[in-house]
Amino acid sequence: MRYPFPVGKSDFIQGDEAIARAAILAGCRFYAGYPITPASEIFEAMALYMPLVDGVSIQMEDEIASIAAIIGASWAGAKAMTATSGPGFSLMQENIGYAVMTETPIVVVDVQRGGPSTGQPTLAAQGDIMQAIWGTHGDHSLIVLSPSTVQEAFDLTIRAFNLAEKYRTPVVLLTDAEIAHMRERVYIPRPEEIELVERKLPANEEEAKFPFGDLHGDGVPPMPIFGKGYKTYVTGLTHDERGRPRTVEAEVHERLIRRIIGKIENNKHDIITYNTFELDDAEIAIISTGIVSRSGVRAVKILREKGIKAGLLKLNTIWPFDFDMIEELAERVRKIYVPEMNLGQLYHLVKEGANGKAEVELIPKIGGEVHTPMEIVERVVG
Amino acid sequence: MYLKSAYDIRDKYLRKDMLPTIFCPGCGIGSALQYTLRAIDDLGLNPDEIVWVSGIGCSSRVPGFVNFDGLHTTHGRALAFATGIKLANPNLKIIAFMGDGDAAAIGGNHFIHAIRRNLDVTVILINNFTYGMTGGQVAPTALKGLRGTTAPYGQFENPFDIADLAVSAGANYVARWSVFNYLQGINSIKKALSKEGFTLVEFLSPCPISFGRRNRMKTAPELLRWYQKITVPLAKAKKMPPEELEGKIVIGEFVDRDRPGLVREYEAYKRRAKKMMGWEE
Questions:
Q1: Which end of chain B is more exposed for a tag (fewer CB within 10 A), N or C?
Q2: A239 lies in which domain range?
């Protein structure tokens, strides 16, 4: 396999470019999108690379069509991705719900920008945290990942495909304009250095009859892709294990939805990853995600120099959320600070997790700039 | 033309555990479905290589009743999903079963762009001038004066002529019949399924319960007579003055051409890309 970019060495590239290259190395061969700042460079890179690796890159008429096309492509057997920003992400929400309901592995990149509506197209924000977790309708669960460096944007894109395939679910890669447009050194591995997960396919005709049944006790049914002669019917209606619509029976709906949520919740320790910095003996914890975490690291260093035992918890997975871990942390620290580039979204999850065991204080910032380390330090020092 | 018995077609292609269908007495969707299955049968197509796609509404439940791979999607989006399926696996033949609301209202943009791209898909479009499943609201195809629950005094907007729209947007094959034109219907579907690119067969289809009841045509025979009255064959329409065609619907075969389909265009694009990058073998 020949790649249209160098592999096995480092390159100095933007976050958006890193996401596109990672997707191709993860095996993505179908990309559908609609241009929107600050996500367009992902599309432009895919448009350049995809025909060369015998994949498809197509500019759809809007974001709704884009996510619809990648769901269709996934059922035809392809690893598929789209990328957008907040306003386009809103348009995709119904079909994200459809992908959850039909257990379709797809990757949706949301490069956040200042909102609401068209807002600040060229500036960064973290305003879509709630939208990524709760934006679609009904009871559901999915996976949301958040990188804080260009290298992490690369690594988490590969992870996003692996998790989507493993759990047959949509995965949202939630990044922001700052990382999207920032250039950093990224190691682009050779294909043999990357561990890839492929979706479970039915082992035989019998398994293929139950595309929505818990055949292996892990909540993730094998996915009978189209064209293999299995004659699979896929519907967004409430359906039984065989995929037949059963819309008025409460127990069928409950069994289906609880399994779909359960396959994420029951595996949350496999899905959730995080990094800590100076957290072991900390009395003050800073919890953050994405670009803000980088100011958080510096803030911790400054606070330690001032004799304040501060530490940082950087969440790489935003959903599923480890409420228990936050509660344990809250039991051993005096106070938790949540700096984020919005007026309080991650804050609500952290506060619920802390469960009153420690005071939780929001450090919000909007307008397009990342918190400076001193802004965090000053709030902690008071 | 020899026709197999309807029982043979049913037994060969329908999912028996899904029967009976949800369709009301007098509904025309079953007829359009039967014509489609007969066309598949006559052409000897392999069911394993066909995927049925649909959006939301009565006609969109069809993929659930036929024993093929099928994707029952969100309202109006069938053709957008189909784009992904077809480009990800060009060996699959795609049949999109859609309603008038699905195609011309919420899915209008996907519809015209799928045609512009010449997506390789055969659309079987059920036009009954109404939103049947949600209880009889007017559709963008409803002729002026027709009633629906959201136009209780008669539709005041101009209707879309879907076939006309498809011809203008660039479809390779477009035909319109009422479901009572069964031989023409089957032949058109066979032609549509045999061509590359975007092909459309539109059926004017009776909906006695949601539509007919509000428009003084409570039974299928009453709707049949109405369709006979309002439809004009293409050859005859060409000789009629415009004022006589007011409120009428032209039926027939509107276009039959062979522009390259999206799959062929993309294959050529990939070769061009590799050539431009010096990647030729």
A1: C
A2: 207-271
Structure tokens at A371: 């918190």
Task: Specify if A201 maps to a domain.
Answer: no
DSSP A37-64: TTTHHHHHHHHHHGGGGT-EEEE-SSHH
Q: What DSSP designation does B143 have?
A: P
In a domain? residue A374? yes
Please indicate whether, in this complex, the C-beta atoms of B81 and A71 are within 8 angstroms of each other.
yes
Cα angle B188, B189, B192; round to 5: 85
pLDDT digits (tens, 9 = 90+) for B1-52: 567 898 999 999 999 999 999 999 999 999 999 999 999 999 999 999 999 9
Identify whether the C-beta of residue A71 lies closer than 8 Å to the C-beta of residue A95: yes
Find out whether A26 and A158 touch, Cβ atoms under 8 Å: yes
For residue A259, tell me if it sits in a domain: yes
Per DSSP, the three-state class of A189 is coil
Total-model pTM: 0.98
Here the tokens at position B269 are 């694009």
**Looking at CA atoms only, how far is residue B39 from chain A in angstroms?**
19
Determine, yes or no, domain membership for A202.
no
Tokens representing residue B4 in the block: 């197999």
Please count the structural domains in chain A: 3
Residue type, A187: Y
